[in-house]
């Protein structure tokens, strides 16, 4: 697994080149070949120093661009790592939405069953099979929805964790933080257990919840 790295600051652009200016073309006396040759030699030396300064400045700019590319790559790796965390949070929000829908079905089904059961106990109605079956059906629908959401969430989280591990080993992203335990998943499992207990209590007429 790749080691965590401290984020580096943005590289500093090198100062503008203020090296030696271009030397002026010398005026020579063509009747003095040696003097002309010496003057042109000094001129070429000045040009060489000027070109050397430009080359050094271009080298500094190239190093700056290289550091800038490395900085951008580092930031991209960290943004990708944070995207994994945001995707995990989105999966938790999706599971929460499924939990709300399932809880509505479970609560409505349980309420219908209890209401008609109380009416039968009070002697208001004789046959409660139809509403009882309807309430149980809503409970079952809620349980199926909740169980499916839990399975989908676990599969997605496992695939996401495996993909993150592969990208970390390949050095494509940083994995400074671990995926925390999904509290939403824990609550969903508890809600599923309660719903199953409610269905068993209705079907077999036993008080599992007291």
TrEMBL record:
Region called Disordered, residue ranges: 1-57
Keywords: Membrane, Transmembrane, Transmembrane helix
Topology within the bilayer: Multi-pass membrane protein
Keyword Cell inner membrane attributed: no
Compartments where located: Endomembrane system
Signal peptide range in chain numbering: none
Pfam families recorded: DUF202 (PF02656)
Domain DUF202 residues, every copy: 86-156
Coiled-coil boundaries: none
Superkingdom of source: Bacteria
Gene Ontology cellular component terms for the protein in this record: endomembrane system
Chain segments annotated as transmembrane: 136-158, 179-208
Protein name per its UniProtKB record: DUF202 domain-containing protein
Organism the protein comes from: Sphingobium yanoikuyae ATCC 51230
């Amino acid at each position: 697994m790749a080691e965590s790295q401290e984020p580096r600051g943005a590289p500093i652009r090198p100062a503008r080149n203020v090296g030696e200016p271009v030397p002026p073309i010398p005026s020579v006396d063509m009747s003095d070949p040696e003097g002309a040759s010496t003057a042109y030699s000094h001129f070429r030396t000045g040009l060489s120093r000027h070109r050397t300064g430009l080359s050094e400045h271009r080298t500094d700019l190239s190093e700056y661009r290289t550091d800038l590319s490395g900085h951008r790559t580092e930031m991209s790796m960290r943004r990708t790592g944070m995207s994994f965390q945001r995707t995990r949070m989105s999966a938790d929000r999706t599971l929460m939405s499924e939990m709300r829908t399932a809880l509505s079905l479970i609560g409505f089904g349980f309420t219908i069953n209890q209401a008609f059961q109380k009416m039968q106990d009070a002697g208001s109605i004789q046959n409660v099979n139809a509403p009882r079956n309807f309430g149980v059906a809503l409970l079952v629908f809620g349980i199926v929805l909740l169980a499916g959401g839990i399975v989908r969430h676990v599969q997605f989280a496992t695939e996401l964790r495996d993909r993150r591990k592969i990208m970390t080993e390949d050095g494509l992203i940083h994995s400074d933080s671990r995926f925390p335990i999904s509290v939403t998943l824990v609550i969903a499992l508890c809600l599923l257990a309660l719903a199953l207990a409610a269905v068993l209590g209705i079907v077999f007429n036993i008080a599992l919840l007291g």
